[in-house]
Amino acid sequence: MWPAIWLVLLMVCVWGFPYADGVLRVIEPDANQVVYQRASLASLLVQHLLVVSAAAVITVAGGVLAAIVVTREWGRNFLPLVAQVASLGQTFPPVAVLALAVPALGFGTLPIIVALVLYGTLPIVRNTLGGLQDVDKEVKSASIAMGMTGWQTLCQVELPLAAPVILAGIRTSITINISTAAIGATVGASNLGDPIIAGIVNGNMAYIVQGALTIALLALTVDSLFERLQERLRSRLYTA
Questions:
Q1: Other residues' Cβ atoms within 10 Å of the Cβ of residue 199
Q2: What is the pLDDT at residue 131?
């Protein structure tokens, strides 16, 4: 129920703010313009989702693969390295990543995707490691005793059992990145951060409210969808 409620509220904001001049003027009564009109919130929402999705695909693929490698017998020596690199990515401020990436990649979407990948890797790596390491050794031994290969044990035993924990890491990573992506507007990446940056530059609180509220509702919608998916995975595991 909650995903539908947040989604409806998100759509109300996206399609309703252009007609909410009277409401927004309460927040900023002296401004010449209170409705953000440089781009529609719908188009900014789509671009925001594309940036976060592109970063999520890279982060999930890289993070899960790295965690799988270092939990194999032949890859355990790389475990400290992967853990430290993932931690370093999140401790590095996204603004600093943008400042370093712009000279090499130019202004636009690429620098913010790089920043989101670095910032969102740690929760996925950490949860995938935890999920795989928590799989009962006796269960893995039983699968091997039944004649399963290492690959079959990974795909049919370890990953399904670790899926709820891995999904929790993906949920955290994507939810954080939905908010963090807003800073991409400072380097020319058009997204829902545009109204916020325009509001800060022009001293227009109404612009900031439109951007911030839309981003918050988007994050709540995605987060509640992942929560529902986690519940289904857990119930499937318990009934299996």
A1: 21
A2: 93
Residue 153 phi, psi (nearest 5)? -65, -40
Task: Count CB neighbours of 45 within 10 A.
Answer: 20
Collect all residues with Cβ–Cβ distance below 8 Å to 30 and sequence separation of at least 6.
Answer: none
Specify the residue for token string 């227009």. 204
> How does DSSP assign 153-179, residue by residue?
HIIIIIHHHHHHHHHHHHHHHHHHHHH
Q: What confidence score (pLDDT) does residue 93 get?
A: 80
Nearest by Cα to 14 from 193, 196, 220, 192: 192
Q: Which two tokens mark 17?
A: 């703010």
- Give the pair of three-digit tokens for residue 3: 């995903």
Distance CA 110, CA 90 (A): 18
Output the six-digit token pair for 126: 């950490």
Q: Minimal CA–CA distance to 163: which of 109, 229, 88?
A: 229
Q: How far apart are CA 236 and CA 240, in angstroms?
A: 6
44 neighbors 194 (Cβ within 8 angstroms): yes
Class of residue 37 by CB neighbours under 10 A (exposed 0-12, middle 13-18, buried 19+):
exposed
Residues 184-202, mean pLDDT to the nearest whole number: 92
Say if residue 89's pLDDT is above 80: no
Angle between helices 2-16 and 205-239 (to 10 degrees): 160
Rg of the chain, C-alpha, whole Å = 21
The upper half-sphere exposure of residue 176, i.e. CA atoms within 13 Å in the direction of its Cβ, equals 19
